[in-house]
Design a protein that fits this description.
Elements (H helix, E strand, L loop, with lengths): L14 E5 L6 E2 L2 E2 L3 H4 L2 H9 L3 E5 L19 H8 L3 E4 L4 H10 L5 E4 L13 H8 L4 E4 L10 H5 L6 E3 L1 H15 L5 E5 L8 H7 L5 E4 L1 H10 L14 H14 L2 E3 L3 E5 L8 E5 L8 E5 L1 H13 L2 E5 L12 H15 L4 E5 L1 H10 L7 E3 L3 H7 L5 H4 L4
Length: about 400
């Protein structure tokens, strides 16, 4: 590791400025899903137990540099106190005299919650003056928001340059898991990539074919690759204007020794609706008036065989229209296979992306994966091989 963790910091009596991601779902002014809050508990607990005072910095929503009462972090106090088992003191600003007075007066054992960083336009512009105001509130900076690490903002990179900095426990776990999956993986290495469009994942696919041993492509993206090979896809979701790009990726994979795995059999239907009449046919026999909505059992068996031979798996995107019955069968079966192998100690599995997490949860497989990233865009950019500014800033 070329970045520090909380273990490298002396926190007794120190104010620890912690960048967290509290951009959580809410309904009627209350938190409706506290997953992100719960995952911060190890960092907050360790700082408190070491005698430090956690001072939380976070954005919430898209206020676009203006103060909006409906996007105030004040509403999160009950959920934070329940998760942290500590009093949370709120300050209606995140810079200046009011914030400084709050952090200087708070009682030991408390957590300080500062107001939404995006109420200031300088946050997203990485304004040096705003970063200095943030830094004035702490003795140490701890970044525990990997999900925001792909953005060079004042509260992620600017302040990290001004204070002794480290990764929080969530950031630490994420970076270790990602390093194990793509930085220095045990091989064979398999990537499962699904989703609707090749155009949204060009950088991802181009990077992966140079990194992995097998690339399993599913969802609407697979249809584009099938069309590029002259295979009829009926009325399926496919980007026919991207077939040349798909052909280029196939050619690059052949040069790098990456085997691209596409469906060999498909589940087709005339309508994308729950319990629509569907049939499984060979991949070359999609009817002209039907659409491909899932991979078939032969394809799933092939993916399972690849997993049997693998040591590391990274996953982003479903294999079919998993939200609608019965078109989640391939995704769920592959997920359960990966989970079982992980539980048996035979496979390291790292997954991320909103649809992916939802699919793994629906399959009942998420809890057995080695690591599930909630980072969204940051996870995708890491898979694309891009430098994440928030991580780079921790390296000094």
């Amino acid at each position: 590791m070329d970045w520090k963790t909380l273990d490298d910091m002396e926190m007794s009596g120190k104010r620890v400025l912690v960048r967290v991601d509290l951009n959580v779902p809410t309904e009627n002014g209350q938190v409706s899903d506290d997953t992100r809050i719960q995952r911060l508990l190890p960092t907050i607990s360790d700082i408190l137990h070491a005698g430090g005072t956690p001072i939380l910095l976070s954005h919430f929503g898209r206020p676009k540099g203006t103060h909006r009462a409906d996007l105030s972090l004040r509403m999160l106090i009950p959920a934070l106190e329940a998760a942290f088992h500590a009093p949370v003191v709120f300050c209606a600003d995140c810079r200046g005299p009011a914030a400084l007075a709050t952090v200087e007066s708070v009682a030991p054992g408390s957590v300080v919650l500062l107001e939404n960083t995006r109420f200031y336009p300088g946050e997203e512009k990485n304004d040096p003056e705003l970063a200095r105001d943030f830094a004035a509130l702490g003795d140490i900076f701890c970044n525990d928001a990997f999900s925001c690490a792909h953005r060079a903002h004042a509260s992620t990179t600017g302040v990290a340059r001004l204070l002794p900095s480290c990764a929080g426990r969530l950031m630490q776990a994420e970076l270790i898991a990602l390093e194990a999956a793509l930085g220095n993986p045990q091989r064979p290495l398999v990537a499962v990539v699904g989703g609707a469009k090749v155009s949204t994942k060009l950088d991802l696919l181009s990077n992966l074919v140079a990194q992995v041993d097998y690339l399993v492509i599913g969802g609407g993206m697979a249809n584009t690759f099938l069309a590029a090979q002259g295979i009829p896809v009926g009325t399926s979701l496919a980007e026919h204007d991207m077939t040349d790009t798909a052909s280029d990726i196939l050619a690059k994979a052949a040069k790098t020794g990456c085997e691209i795995v596409l469906p060999s059999d498909i589940v087709v239907a005339r309508a994308l609706k729950a319990n629509a009449e569907s049939h499984t046919v060979p991949v070359t026999e999609c009817p002209a008036d039907a659409m491909i909505l899932d991979a078939g059992p032969e394809s799933v068996a092939r993916i399972g065989m690849i997993m049997e031979d693998a040591h590391t798996l990274i996953w982003n995107g479903p294999l079919g229209a998993f939200e609608i019955e019965p078109f989640g069968a391939a995704t769920f079966a592959a997920a359960r296979k990966a989970a079982a192998m992980t539980k048996a100690g035979r496979l390291v599995t790292v997954a991320g992306g909103g649809d992916t997490v939802a699919a793994l949860n629906m399959a009942g497989a998420a809890h057995d994966f080695t690591y599930i990233s909630t980072a969204g865009g940051a996870f995708l950019e890491w898979m694309e091989g891009k430098t994440l500014p928030g991580v780079a800033a921790l390296r000094g």
